[in-house]
Each structure stands twice: as structure tokens, then as C-alpha cells.
Amino acid sequence: MPEIEEGIEEGIDEGVDEGVDEGVDEGVDVVEPIDSSEEEEETDEEAAKEVARGFIVDDEEEEEEDEEEVYRSRKKKKHKKRKRERERSPDFDEISEDELELIEGNRSRSEQNFKRLKRGRQEKSRGSAYDVKKIFDDEDMDDQFGNDSDFVVDDDDDDNIQFDEGDTGQRGRGSYSKTYYDDVSEPEKLWQNAFLDIDDKYSFAFDNPEDMDVEPAEGLEAILDDGALKQLKMTSDDIRIKNTDLPERMLLRSEIDQGRKLTDTEIEEATKMISEDLAYFNEQRPTNQFMVAVKRVLKCLGQEFFEVPYIYTYRRDYIAEFDDDFSRPPREILTRADLWHIYDLEYKYRLFIKKREEIKETIKKHRIDDHVSTFLSEASTIEALTDLHSYIHHAFSQQIVAALPSRRHVKKISFYEDCRSRNLDKLVTKFGVRIQEFGRSLNLGKKIHYPQPSGQDPYVAAQEFASNYTRKAEFTNLNPVELALADAVKMLSQDIGFEPSFRKFVRRRILEQGVIVVSPAPHKDIDISHECWPYRFLKKPISRFRNSGLFAKIMRGEDRGILKVKIELDREDDFLDILEKHIVGDNRSNLEEKNLIDQKWDKFRIEAVHAAYSKVLCPIIDVWIKARLKDDAEQWIMRQCMLGLETKLNVAPFKPTNMYEEDDEDVDDDGIIRIAAASWGPGGRHPTECVCIDENGQLLENVRFTDLRDKESKDFYDFYQFLCDHKPNAIVLRSYDNRTKYLLETVQDVVGYYKNHGGEEIPIIVINDEVAKIYRLSSRGRHDYPDSDYNEVVRYCISLARTLQNPIREYAALEESITSIKCHSMQSLLPKEKELECLQRAFINIVNEIGVDINDAINSPYKSDLLQYVSGLGPRKVDALYKKVLIEGQSMDMERRYGSDVIDVSRREDLNKVYQLGPKVYANCAGFIRIRPRAIESFDDTRIHPTYYILARKMAADALDMDDDEAEEELQQSNRRDFLRKLSAEPDRLNDLILEDYAKSLSKYYESPTKLILHNIKTEMMAPYADPRRPFEIPTPAKIFEMITGETEETLYEGLIVCVKIYKIEDKAVKCQLDSGLDGTITIGYVADHRIDSQELRSRFHIDQQIYAKILSIDKIKFSATLSCRPRDVNGKQTFQSQRSVDSDYDYDAEARAQTLKQVKPRNVITHKPHTRVIQHPMFKPFTFAEAQDYLRDKQSGSMVVRPSSKGHDYISITWKLYDDIYQHIDVVEREVLVVGAVERRFEVENGKYVYSDLDELIVEYVEAKSQKVEALVNHPKYKVTEASLRDFLNMSLTVNPRQSEYGFCLDTRTPGWFSFMFKLKPGSQIDTLIGSIRPDGYKLKDQIYPTVIDLINGFKRNVSNASRNSGNQAYVRR
């Protein structure tokens, strides 16, 4: 564990070895950086001319050479080039040929990594005359070719790429875009003709003749850059995954041999380890039945490579107990969540055995003592291996370092090695402590260790080593002998602290008796409204943190500097007594009887063992315990998030009663026929958008109405006609805020009119819009329905309709954005990768329960998202499968067979035989893939696995009283549905089969087929692929209220004091609005403690005034609340629905002591005022700017939080992470406008330069847009992390290539949101800097916006080149 290794470095005080691998690191040669001397500076003009020399060359066509001759020529030219560069460089004598080759090799690899398109062969060019106007010309096109040399050439996007016909390797003249050329002025044409090589987008005309040596390009990796390959899923890893016959998710587990089968011995070992871990996590004892179930699951995972869905479906009898008649639900030994946990633990076990093999190789290679092999054979946890690894590198560091290559510059020697070099280890041996025996003595609980007395006084023994401490003693209060003994005690403490058996004893004791102590950080007070309040003082045994996410919350408090977390040992004095008892010569009770010499040695031994525990081990244990408890907490949260999303996904499509006949084969049973959706977006003033989608989720029609409320208006009757034309089976409604209630009333009027005029009843449903809010502003939504034709409200409506039509499909379409959906209150505590993983597992669980129609998925992009979650598959294998279906020409076969050009898979077995999924992948996925509607095999649209088809046919034949031949003939002659209908129509025929006897009679086909398999086959034939999801339920008024307002029983209740904003003042009441958009009414009787009239009421308040009010009652049907602002109700009388309960292990004594010691001076109070309401947004956090930075510190770039602003109620702050340790705080002004009784919000950024209708739109179009620009900038090969590294890059580049100019850019750490564009003309010249800013629409440099990085680079080159032509080379900004 890396945390443990770090703990060694952090915790060992001064004299302790700083790292497990320190001994190895010390043996590594240190190569000093090369110091380049600077040339004498010339004038800027001379520098420009000098740099321009050789930059611009003309193309010259040559005939293609023989490949062997070209290869020999390349080698010769490279050698000559290096020689010339060494001669040109003033530092050539300091840079060896190997070093130059290494630098150039690295640059070459860097170029290849970023080249979008590469040429297989390049032609030679002639050099042109030197000209100051030709500075900064690139040898290759930047970004397209990734050259790191010079830089003036337009970098065009791939869309403009043109190839000459017949170009087979030798570059020929291409034709430039006429439109592009015609758009430029005459002077610019001359400039382009001279510099930009616009005749050929892929020209290498600017290459120096020596640089024309490029190996022929082979394959996609030679054509596309890494980003494009990843997007196309065509990297080498992607191809390996596609071609390997193992489940994709197993192949994504790194650092192990994924295809290695675990041996039976390893299965036994893993069973013991995993059973203990899982039982500990679940707070249960690992019974024999439990361990047998775990072992069976491990065999499925580690030997047969079956994924969790397969095990849960087809090996259910391994993990559950069933009644003989299957009349009651099974009693689960292992839940599906347990299976996923075992899946993770099996991966950790594979890492364990890999680490064990590595240690075994180290022992063998360095011929380490046999007792270490004994420790290795006894190691049963990753912690034990880590301890052994640390011990080896501590005890045998000299052997390991000696085996390394010769060392020239060892910069640092550890304290332990320094003492050993002074032979102080000889003094340590005189302590007489046999450390291995001491460790065994502790673990046995029986004293078997007795030190070997030296018979010599310790001070006398140390005399011979005192000479090494004479000089050091001059600076301390100790004499040389005492210093020698002190260092010897430190050495012994390290020897004890690194002993594996000693660590094992301490770890076990900490787990059994350790206590987590939590308290507020210094100068941090936490009030009752803060999330840390229930556990701000805590003293909780480690064993009680199981099965909860509490520790993850505690660690977040510590990370933010709010809490202080310590690990203490209960009854630590007793523990130290045990250590002392086992380290000294005799029992402590006889200490007085010992001779004086032994007493002196015992004193030093005790001091050493105390130091081993407190200074060596405690810091390591602290890191280990925190990491372990946090990992357990995150595992629990992952379970809850998975189950929470499953609840959202496990909902069948909405189906009105009597919509269609059950046996209608043309009905898509995955969704209803037509859905209409309506919304008016962010408020009532906007037009009402209405859409209707078909059974495939595609838009049929989009209409817009401006005045639906008026029953006499044209819009009212147009909406009625819309319903008559499409006859939707349901209408789904939702607006961005609580104005949904008004929309609901309006649509009900139209639907009522429709029904009264002969139409059928149409259900009107309000649903959760969490998916629609993301889709309306997503890149996918804009791709499906572009802004040029559809606004965001239309996309919002389409997503609402699709969500009602088939919820799981719409959730799946979010892909990685699914993490924006809140599935559990602690979800934000998870790292992004774990959060995404657990949510994907929810999809896997539900998708494999309902199955996926592969032909639907292949032919409809909208329905294709679910296929990747099928057991054994994944996005890469699905991509490969789809391409194979096209390539194999099956569509033509289907056309001949059915007269259709639809791509079709006709039978399950084709997935393996024709499309070559591979036996293991096919076994995993076959039962979950449905073949419809023209399946040839009768059971291909059932959950019956192909393995059991012969069994199913036999059961079907016997149930229908047919022999095998008759059944086969029936299968050939009848439609598969007819065959299965006969069975489902007469279920008694199947029920009459005696499964016990039937299993025996079929033993010739299977080895003891279980009763459960037979029962499942029978059930599936009676109801093929019955939907296990719960029916869609129309939300109750309370649920609708919660969905629209975001308020729950815990966040909004009677007695709560809230902040409201007044939008209307009447004679007898004040109308206001809560932060959540809920309307509030304060009647005149609840304004003051005394009676007032209307005039005084109006004089007290004004529009947009913010006041505090107490909630008296809530009407969830009308979406309103009655309030009171009387002083006696709001002044100091904040009430809570129930007093917040504290943790059961809350430390009241510690709280009392803190109160006693509390000082009068002002403190930094961490509090959230009771009346302050949170912003209803999933990204909202009640943070200060400092807390926001701490929260984002370990998040990925682009992460953000929405938080309150210190500037006032009308402001919101957004803090987002640009890059590591770079954060920008964005002030958002929230303005509200009263429009026809409704409050409309506007969000302004940069003094109103950017205005958005809601917070989501601002986040997507402003913050995320800027984040994408930052990502593009930092992913460019010219980007460097810091200004210092950029300067080093420019200097080194010109040292290696002195005739070239160089540029690069970095983010400005002092002004987040800005960047520095630096360039250098030649060695010895100054580095000049241009300052630019990152905008949502591009990069601003010198008052010009450039949409892409390529445009930015081209603009920079033109600016610098124009300046060079007009006034020589002048710097713009110097720092």
C-alpha cells in the first residue's frame, strides 16, 4: 500500500530510514543536469535573421528511391546532422553523442504521440534564402504533426485535410482550399506563399534537408494521435481487449495477468482471506456454509471467468438456499452486492499473489536468509507482504544496493546506513535482543525471548565507538559515549520496528483495541447546523466503524481542516507493559534483584521498544488504519449508491391499461407507442414547447404555443389538434421550477376538452427531470438536436418523454455524466472512478435482468447504450461486435431471407460461430442477449442459457407429450412464439413434471443438473423474458412536491426560519418566494407583534426586500407555504423538527473539557446560519473559498462547486479547478424579474457580459466551456506545467537545435484563467511572453479571440512574424 510506504517516510523520527526502497534509491546514479553556457547576445534583428536561416525551404519533387537506399541514406544523414549540431552548439563538448541521441529520441517520440496524420515518406527540399520575415516557420504542421521545432505555419483542423489521388507514400503537390485562399488579402497571399505552404496542407516544405528522415507509417497508430485512437477505441490496449476471449471488465483490471487461472491451492487460500474480509465487512461470522459459497464464487470468477450477472443468474444455487417447492423467496447466503465485493477482493488477491511472487524473486536474486522465506509463506494479507517488503529493504539494503550498477553520485545516506558505516551495529548486538524471537514471543502471548547478556557495562561497551562522536558532542549537552548509545538505541528501534512479526502483533492489537478520537481542529468551532456537528467530538472503537460511511465523512472533515483525527490504543499503558515484559531479561517484578549492568541494558532495551512502537510504527499504523477504514467506508457507500441507482432503473416503462392486446407481436414491449411532453422551461413567460416521440424515441413533431391558458385562443385549439393527430398514450410535464403546477392546470384543461370531444383518457404525469436537465445542455443533446433547429426546452421535453417511455435507456445515455445523478447522500464522498464504477454496476445488474435485444441495439443508436452492460461485454467488445456484423455480410443474408436490408443477428450461436466473440465471452453474455423478432431457435428470446437448450427441449417435449422427433418437427414447422404459447397456455403440463425424477433421467446430458436450473427453465418457458421490474407508479402529490422543489421532510418543515424575497405587496398580505422557488404568503396578522393596517404594511416592506420568516404550514398540493415574520417568531427562536442526534459514541467528556478551556478571544467558527438556505443544486456546497479549494484539491481538473458568496444574497460563487493547485473563483450575480406574477431568474457573469437563464446553463456554457479550453491547452505538446519548466524547455530546445526558434505556453498560477505564451528566438536571446486569457468561446490573445489551440498558435505566429517584419523583433511582455 503506497500509504504505508509514505507513512514510513513521514513517521520515523530523524534517525529512521526514510523509505522502504531507500536502499535501492541510494544506489542509483545521479546524472547532473547539463549547464549550457550562453552565447554573446546579438541585436534582435540579427537574432531574427540568424534564426530564420534554414527555416524556409521550397518543395522539390523527386522520384521515389529504393527502400534500402533510403534507409542507408537516413542513417548517414542523422549522423551528419548530429555532428553539425554539436559543432554549432557552444556546449557541444559537454553533451555526449548518447545524450544527444537520447534527447532527440525523446523529442521524436513526443512528436509521434501528437501527430494526427503522418506521412509514410517525405521528399527532399531545397533551402531558401534567409529572410527576417521567415522567422518561426515550422518544419511540420503543429498539432497535425506535432513538430517541436520552429513555429509559423497555419495549423488547420482535420476537416480541411485533402489527399492527392494516387498518393502512395511519396508526398506530391496537393490542392489548397480555394475558399480559404480567396478570403485573404493580397499581402497575406504573398506571406502565405512564402511561409505557409498553402499549396499542400500536408507539406513538409519547411523541413531542413537533414530532418527528412521519417520511417514509413504503418497502421492507425501512424495516422492518428492517441486522443483520436482512444475515441475510436483503437489503441493497442483496446485492440487487445477486443481480441481477447475474456470479459472486458476483467481485462480492464490492471497490473495483473488477467487471463491466469487461479490454482486450486490459490482458491483455497483466497477463500480463507476473502471470507474473513467479507464477514468482517458485513459484521458476521464466516460460517462453513458462508465459506463454501465464497469458494464456489471464486472458482467461477478465477477459473471459469464468469462475471457477477452470470453467477447471480445461472449459479444462484451456489449463493442461496431454496425450498423444495420454490414457494418462498430464497434465503441468500451471499447477496448480489456481496458478489461485487468478492469480485473486488478477488482482484486484490491477484495483486497479492503478484506482489508475493515479486518478493520471492527478490529473495532468490539476492540470496536472502531462509527465515524471510518462512515469513513469506506465512503472509496472508497485503499488509503482511508490505511489512516483509519493508523488512527486506531495511535489513538487506547493502546486498540489494551492491547488486545495482556502479554508483557515482550518491546524494543521501540514511541514518541507519550512516551508523552502520561507523560499525555501530556491533554495539547494537551487545544489547542482546533477538528480534525475531521477541516478535514470536509477543504473538504467542508467552515469554520465550530472553536477551543474551553481554556482561559488559553499556557505557563501557560504547567507549570504542565514542571517537566518531567527538565533534558532534561539541554541539550538544551529551558526551560522545551517550551519543553513541543514543544512536544505537535508534538503530535497535528501527530493527524492531521493521520486524514483520512485531508489526503483525501491533496491527492486530490496534484493530482489536484501537480507538478513533475526533475533535474540532484548533480554532474551529462547529455549530449544530454544520454537517460535522454529530461527530465533532468522538471516541469510537475501530470495530464499530463497519457497515457505514461515517469514516469517509470524518476524513473529509480532516481534509478540509475542520476536524482533527487521532488513533489511540485503549489501555495503552497495559500494552506498553507487555512490550517491556517481553523485551527485558526477566520479569519486571524482579527488577530490583537484577545486577546493575542488566538494569542499565534493560533501560536501553525498553527505550528502544518504546521508540519502535511510537516513532517507527505509530505513523505507519495511523496511515494504514485511516486508509483501511476509509476504503471500507467507500465500499459501503458504493453499495448504497449502486442500490440507489438500481431503484431508479428498476422501473418498467409506463403502460396505460388496455393500451394494446397482450399478444400483439408488433408492439415493442420495451416501451409504449407514443409519448408527448410539454414544458415552458424556466418560467411562465416562455412559450410552451410540446413534442411527440415514437416507439424508437425519435421526434415526430415539435410545436410551440404562446398562450395556452386562454381557452379561446388559437393555441388552445392547436394543442387540441396536436393531440388528435398523434393520440399520445401519455403526456409528461415538467418545468425547470415550481411553475410546473400552472402548466399542469393548463394541460389538464386541454386534455379535458379533448376527452369531452371523443378522445380517450390521456394520463398526465409529472416525473423527475434529473436526466432531462443534463441532456438539454449536453453535447450529445446538441448533436442529436442542434441549436440551429431546436432550443434547450425542446431537448428537455424529448428527454422527459424518453424517460417515461423507457427510464433505463435514458439514464444509460448519460454515460459518464451519470455521476451527476444523486443516488445517495454520501455519494460526493467517493472518488470519481469509484463513483462511476458503482453506478455502472447498477446498470449491469438491471440490464442483465431484463436482457437486451441485440438487433434493436445494432439498428437503433438510441437503443444501443445498454448492450455494453451485458455480462462479458463492454464498449470495446460491443464496438468490435457491431463492426463484425457489418463486415461478415449478414445483412445481405437477411435481405435474401426476409426481403429486408435490416442488419440482423438470427441466432445466439452466431455470436460465437460467426461473429467470434470467443467461448468465454459468449458463455457470459448469451443468456442475456435476446434475438427478436425472427429468431430461428425457439429459446433465443428466453433467459434459458444455450448450455441448457437440449434440456429445455426435452422438458418441452415431455410436457406436450411428444417424443424428441415430434418436438423437433414441431419446432421446425411452427413459429417459436406458437410453440412457447402452447406451453404457457397450459402451465399445468409443465407443473406436472417431477423435477427430482426428471433431473435423474437427464443425467446422461448433464452431471447432476440442479433442481434450480430445471425450475428456472420451466418458469421461463411459461413466461419468456417476463419483465422483473416494478411497474411505473404515478407520483403522489407529496412526491411531486419533492421532485419540483427539491425539499424533503428534513429540509423543509413547520417551525423552520428561512430567508425569503418579497415580490408582491397586497393590502392584507405579502407575497414572497423561498430559495427553492416555493411561494410564501405572510398575512397582515403575522407581520408584527401588534395589530397593523394596510398602510403600515406597505410602509414596512418593498419589492425585492429580503426578510426572515418562520414556516407555519406547507401546502404540497398548491406548492405554497404560510409564513410569519413577527419578531417573536423569528428572533432567536429557530426550531428544528427534531434535535439533531449525535453519534452513539459521542465524547461528551471531551466536549465539556473543550468548553472549559474555551478562550474569550474570537474564534474561527465553522457555522451555517440556521436561516441560511442552501441552493438547490447538486453541485452546491456550503463552503468558503478556502474550503472549496481544499475540497477540490484531490478532484480531477474541471471539477467545480457552487457555493454561497460573501458579497450578499444576490451573489453566487463558483469555484472550479483548472489544473493542479490552480483554482478560479467566479462571481455570479443572480437577478430576478417579476413577470406576470412569476419571478424569473437571470444569472450574470463578468458584469453582465454573459447572461444565462439558469445555473445549469451557466455551468455548461461558461464554466465547462472554459474547462474544455483549458483541457485542450494542457493536452497540447507545447504545454508545460510551470513557468520555470517552460523556460527550461525553451532553453534546452535551443541548446540542442540552436538554429531553430521555440515557443510554448503554461497556465498563469498567479492569475487563474490566464495563460502565458512564451517564445525564444535563439540561444542567448531573451524569452518573451504574451499574456492571454481563457474564454468560453476560445483563447483571447492581444484583443483577438481564437476558437481552438491551433488557431491560437497560428494567430501567435502571425502576430510575432508581423512584428518582426515591421519593427524587428520586439518583446511584448517581459517578466
From TrEMBL:
Residues 104-136 have a biased composition (Basic and acidic residues). It is found in: Chromosome; Nucleus. Residues 1-29, 35-45, 57-69, 92-102, 137-167 have a biased composition (Acidic residues). One of its GO terms (biological process) is transcription elongation-coupled chromatin remodeling. GO terms for cellular component: chromosome; transcription elongation factor complex. GO terms for molecular function: DNA binding; histone binding; nucleosome binding. Residues 1-180 are annotated as: Disordered. Its main location: nucleus. Keywords: Chromosome, Nucleus, SH2 domain, Transcription. Residues 1178-1278 form the SH2 domain. Residues 73-85 have a biased composition (Basic residues). Residues 1055-1126 form the S1 motif domain. The keyword Transcription applies. It holds the Pfam family YqgF. Histone H3-H4 chaperone that plays a role in maintenance of chromatin structure during RNA polymerase II transcription elongation thereby repressing transcription initiation from cryptic promoters. Mediates the reassembly of nucleosomes onto the promoters of at least a selected set of genes during repression; the nucleosome reassembly is essential for transcriptional repression. Essential for viability. PANTHER family: TRANSCRIPTION ELONGATION FACTOR SPT6. Belongs to the SPT6 family. This is Transcription elongation factor SPT6.
